[in-house]
Amino acid sequence: MSNRLAQAASPYLLQHADNPVDWWPWEPDAFEEARRRDVPVFLSVGYSACHWCHVMAHESFEDADTAAYMNEHFVSVKVDREERPDVDAVYMEAVQAATGQGGWPMSVFMTPDGEPFCFGTYFPPEPRHGMPSFRQVLEGVHSAWTSRRDEVAEVAGKITRDLAERELSTADAGSPTEEVQALALLQLARDIDPATGWFKGDTKFPPSMVVEFLLRHHARADSVAALEMAEELCGAMARSSLYDQAAGGFHRYVLTPRPGGPLIPHFEKMLYDNALLCRVYAHLWRATGSELARRVALETADFLVRELRTAEGGFASALDADSDDGSGRHVEGAYYAWTPAQLREVLGDADAELAARYFGVTEEGTFEEGASVLQLPRQEGVVDAEKVTSLRERLLAARAGRPAPGRDDKVVAAWNGLAVAALAETGAYFDRPDLVEAAIGAADLLVRLHMDEHARLARTSKDGRAGANAGVLEDYADVAEGFLALASVTGEGVWLEFAGFLLDHVLAQFTDAESGALYDTAADAEQLIRRPQDPTDNATPSGWSAAAGALLSYAAQTGAEPHRAAAERALGVVKSLGPRAPRFIGWGLAVAEALLDGPREVAVVGESGDPAMTALRRTALLGTAPGAVVATGVPESDELPLLAGRPLVDGRPAAYVCRHFVCDAPTTDPEELRETLVSPNA
What we know:
By secondary structure, this protein is α+β, with helices and mostly antiparallel strands. It has 4 domains: 4-164, Glutaredoxin (3-Layer(aba) Sandwich), CATH 3.40.30; 178-319 and 408-597, Glycosyltransferase, CATH 1.50.10; 336-401, no CATH class; 601-678, Glutaredoxin. Helices cover 48% and strands 10% of the residues. The protein is globular, with a radius of gyration of 26 Å.
């Protein structure tokens, strides 16, 4: 029999709809039921592509005896962290504070008032590696609730008070300086492992936002070290098993189980990773002309459109890590791994031997059960490029016959905003109008389905229906970022207008007027035990940094001083965090580079279709000045404020490079414009 989750829109919640656990969604009635029964609430938070979420569900939530105990002694609430990032953030902060670590599935026990008192992540079905079993945890919590209630209440109250006191202010911090940026670069250099090109540590997540900072710092300060780090990081990622060498696109992260051993991917493919990395590799190509960067940017863009685009024109959230291995078992990585025998079956002996050498497939395997995950050697020139393309195409065609990983078709506003920006710019750089059209299609969906008549955003949609959960700060900021990128690429002022609507909400609903601090939820959103507020990047830019970037770009396009002032105040947090923890505020550092450079405003005037206009426009878009905004159109257009008062020069298309709407002499020469936009502090 299905439980209450059968009515949910979230694919993750629907995966638990047939559990014997009497799950509730996150809603007031669940907590009221806990009060009525005088039992604690068990909160389980995860997401569709989470491997260990599936493991715990199979081991515990599908077990009839465990479920019966949960149903008798708890009200159990299941949350999709991608639908409710605010709930996830608040309780993850408590988990990390109490245990020193976090992750998913997240398991929290709380009072009917939502005050947490016991924490964890994954619990096994029996005691293992020093961890108690999930049943032992359940029994321990029940015992404490029934026999030591005063102690539970004291712990819950203290934790809740501690969380409530964690308020951030940037009112007196001031904007980041060149010294702050240089200190951040120095700390990043210390964190790089020169032997591998990765940051140090056994678990390696793609540092897309840090690479964006490095590229911008190089462009502004002419830092060779910053560019070299960016190239090393991008090269290491693109050649490793983090990258899907057959089809393009990146997995979530890789692990190094032993020093010098192979990198083992965690195979889920997330929209946000691939959108951010597509844009980063396009920007790396723009800065260096790297053929590797060009290939990875385009392959990742094609992956997004081919495998994540929904029927409505948006982009799905993720592909699962697990898939059927052909024998009925659901196995992580089964879709992506190869044995030498499988290569021979697909390619024949000679080509299989070549492919095994080129992609690092060994008899002993680099993954599990003698299988290997494809990766590239550090030097690729040993095999003809056409041959490599042929091998990839044949492997991809064979892989298409395997059971595919499941897809989470939920459309998340923020991540679609990131995809819009990536596809718009990648399409413009590489003359791929189909990618720009895909970006426009997703932007249209966001306007049509996620924005209401007051320009308020819904967090998610699925199958053409908007979800009930309100957008959070990252949704407003990242969708605005996507719209601003579209305005620069297309020259259509409507996208600038939509971005302005969203950013007005950021100022009104998410910003503390006195301190300049930003909150992750709107002032009129559901009140949790704490209003979440986190300026540090995780898998995506923090809402705080993303909002600062979008506000700054909008101010550069329009001259809106309130938006620029808000961006400057928000960036105060970079001054304190940047030198100490640059890997966790990469996007804030990248936005600070734009602020230090101006950012530059480029107005290109002329008639559409005029070759001279096309050349200037392309040169402007390929300029590497950090955070530069571009406006293109006919002179005196009222769609884009940057074009006002910018006439043709001697009847010819012209480009104006400005800061704070004060412009240098215009030029009609693309090469002169290029030099202006690539020269540090020109």
